[in-house]
Amino acid sequence: MTGFLARICGQRPWVTVGAWIVLVVIAGLLIQSLFASATTTELVLSGSAESARASQLLEDRLRGPEPLVEIVIVQSDSLTVDAPEFQAKVESVFHEIMALGGETVVFGRNYYQENDVTLVSADRQTTIMEIVLAGTFDEAAVNVEHVIDVVKEADAANDFRVLVGGTASISFETNELSQHDLEQGERFGLPVALIILLVLFGTVIAALLPIGLAVFAIIVALGLTAVIGQVFELVFFVTMMITMIGLAVGIDYSLLIVSRFREEMNKGQDKLEAVERAGDAAGRTVLFSGVTVVIALCGMLIVPASFFQSLAVGAILVVIVALAATLTLLPAVLALLGTGVNRLRIPFVGMGNLESSEANKEGFWEATTRVVTRFPVISIIVIGVPMLVVTFFYFQIETGLNGVDTFPEGAQTREAFFVLEEKFSFGLVNPTEIVIDGNVNDPQVQGAVAKLQETLSNDPRFPIPPILVSNPSGDLALLTLPIPGESSSRANVDAVTDIREQYIPAAFDGVQADVYVGGVTAVAADLFGVVDSYTPIVFAFVLGFSFIVLLLVFRSIVIPVKAVIMNLLSVGTAYGLMVLVFQKGVGTDLLGFQHAEVIDAWIPLFLFTILFGLSMDYHVFLLSRIRERYDQTGSNAEAVSYGLRSTAGIITGAALIMVAVFGAFASGETIINQQVGFGLAVAVLLDATLVRSVLVPASMEVLGRGNWYLPSWLAWMPDLRVEPIEE
After folding, report:
1. Cα separation of 652 and 650, whole Å?
2. Residue 727 confidence class, pLDDT cut points 50, 70, 90
3. CA–CA dist 151, 161 (Å, integer)
4. Is 530 exposed, middle or buried (0-12, 13-18, 19+ CB in 10 A)?
5. pLDDT tier at 363 (50, 70, 90 boundaries)?
6. DSSP state string for 233-256
7. What contacts 24+ positions apart, CB below 8 Å, involve 390-393?
């Protein structure tokens, strides 16, 4: 099928190329007109989550949509709020913000209006203003830029320090930092990938093809995301996901096709025959890899949280588009180029034919295979034991959510966090909301509320007493409780968990009322619960699917068991290294990363689905060649040697490109991108080197013919081999 498709596109190259150009132009227009409204920084869980039910009750029966409050801080090192100069500064900043108009700001208050002492710090050198923004969350996250501009201008004017912090400003700055990291990743990742391709191919034209295809795939995927985002709002990180995965798989897949095309051309075939052969051979591997990655990514769609589903949608879209472009656009371009694919040759570089197994019988990979297969048990111990030791550190992982306090130094909202935390409480920005659904005038309910308030006030984790308000109909009440510290930190989540599981049940035992806890911290707590609940389900889905597919492809029950074990070893080692680097600080300064108290709770599950899909690419590519040779010769040792030397060059090159792309994104300023990029880069590097070059051949040597064992009761299964038998 892939060979036939390649031939059709190769016979009509201009039609195929023209269709893709039109598609890219349409996607560009969609991105320009729709993408801004397709994404959000708001974390949304399914309606069954307790925090979601609390939010909906408040919106329906108390206050409408949640007010988006920004806290503006004015601070002096020498003056107190009693000084006329201090008052003049506060009123000047307040006036400028309120002058932004009703489309940006709907309400504001400051100390000098109401003489509210809660708006002044204990040393009277800091005061805060409460500013309520207009519009929805996403509208406010855009319009808050005007408030930030006023604050920045006021901060630079004289000796006063002026800062702003709040849900909208944190969202705005998160977008700004992510955009910076995205641009930096592209700025470094693309050139490094191009250099690797130039070394691999030795010609400029051949090296540029994978880059161009990846860019096409990213643009089209972003255009599709812009459309989908109009119906299902996607988390902003989807842009980074599409770019990162698009560059990696787009270059990876096209590398396989281009290298196979050049091999066939070197054999003397004409360009259409070479296109068809490349599509038939390497195209099968690409198709299998793409489908495998997509199905593995579907594991994240199972998780009822917009964040996971957004990441899955973005990654799935770009893989599908990259797959389609590789199987249609690339054959058309290769048919147009023919021998021109080798133009602009670079002297002294280029590995030539990456898949030439016979030419490399005395090369590095052949020598490596001989050593590994001669001492297979020692090889497994030397490589496997250290990987297991590193994996052990995964069991010391502390998961959470890295919040505004981990933003890069100099970030406006990060500075505001520390001032608020020192002088007031950052909990004022994102207070926890305890919603009581019941007859507020019932003495039993009132007694339960009073008991809960007393319990909370006696807990040193809640130094600011909760404030109680009720709706006019008397059937809903709200306790607003500011909790010091970063809203999504593990300490705050633990505090909310105690409120839910201990304080509320104790206070409302036997009382006719339903009590829910909402707010940012409660959302984080619900997210942690979702991750804990769905991780086994996702693991079972991905592992089960991988096992079944490998069983069908290789008609062996041993191969899929080993593949699952080795993929888990790669992922586990990557997890352990993340804990060592980010949590324990090993090599943090050397690598330029931030130290973190926690690994973001969503990252391990995300990495697992991504890496399992990507690693299947290399595993199948290697094992399909080994199985092909084994079927021809019946010699396990010869098959392993042939498979490794015939695929090692291209696997190593593809892996280095992925490492370069992921590593470039790991060089960003935000700790989330550092953790994701590092985890992906390390796992791919380990998988394509130590696992594929040492553990796979060593284990296959130990097992011998047992590698291909298939129980007789499974003999009915179809043969779904990926690589066609060479003629």
Report:
1. 5
2. very low
3. 9
4. buried
5. low
6. -EETTHHHHHHHHHHHHHHHHHHH
7. 390/572, 390/573, 390/576, 390/577, 390/580, 391/569, 391/572, 391/573, 391/575, 391/576, 392/576, 393/575, 393/576, 393/577, 393/579, 393/580, 393/584
Token digits for 82? 């009693």
Domains and CATH numbers, the chain: 1-37+203-345 (1.20.1640.10), 63-172 (3.30.70.1130), 363-402+534-727 (1.20.1640.10), 431-518 (3.30.70.100)
* DSSP summary character for residue 305: B
What backbone phi and psi angles, to 5 degrees, belong to 464? -95, 120
How confident is residue 357, by pLDDT bands cut at 50, 70 and 90?
very low
Alpha-carbon distance values, 126 to 85, 120, 129, 162 (Å)? 13, 6, 10, 10
Q: In this predicted structure, what is the pLDDT of residue 576?
A: 94
Q: Which pLDDT value is given to residue 353?
A: 47
d(CA 364, CA 3): 32
- Output Rg (C-alpha) for the chain, integer angstroms: 29
Q: Is the pLDDT of residue 346 over 60?
A: yes
pTM over 0.90: no
| Residue 194 · residue 211 · CB < 8 Å | yes
Can you read off the two tokens belonging to residue 365? 């990979």
Specify the DSSP element, H or E, that contains 600.
Answer: strand 599-600
- Summarised one tens digit per residue, pLDDT across range 228-268 is 988 887 888 888 889 888 888 888 888 888 888 888 888 87
